[in-house]
Design goal:
single chain, Rossmann fold, about 20% strand, alpha/beta
Length: about 190
Amino acid sequence: MIDISKALTTPGWMEPDELEYLAHAASKSQRIVEIGSWRGRSTRVLADHTPGVVYCVDTWDDAGIGIDGWWNSQDSPALHMETGWLWKQFYANLQDALLTFKVIPLTGTSIEGTTRIDKCCDMIFIDASHDYESVKQDILAWRPLLTEGGIFCGHDYGYDLYPGVKQAVDELVGKVRVINTIWTTEL
């Protein structure tokens, strides 16, 4: 049964129809990798619906995150209320799943994460840096780690603020199904 209620109470930018898609996809997946977890809204729905495990690759780096939680590249680290704000938010939102090893955090960049996961991922969800070069790099680095028939998907496709996401996906993945701003395909 799909229940996105916990995810809806977790701060983030994932819309209800996107959360429902992720819940359905996770319910068919044993080993999920999420690249870019931020405060854990999408992680919550993935963990709540997979019969397996969710590996989360993120730096949880507070640099550029203002005290209100919004990205602001002009924020000085001195403006942050405390170091580790983002990790503390993620931990608070996923504590039950972290303590039962349903969610396994891998702290580091997307590319560093590829060295810590072997090729047996049946779902990969990309939602890290949204510029063209970063999305392109993520697609090229992570696609080889997906099992045949696995679900390859990501967030912010067609979102005007991040044109690089659509450009990279169109060039490297090709035809995708779109649910709001999630792109998805099975390889």
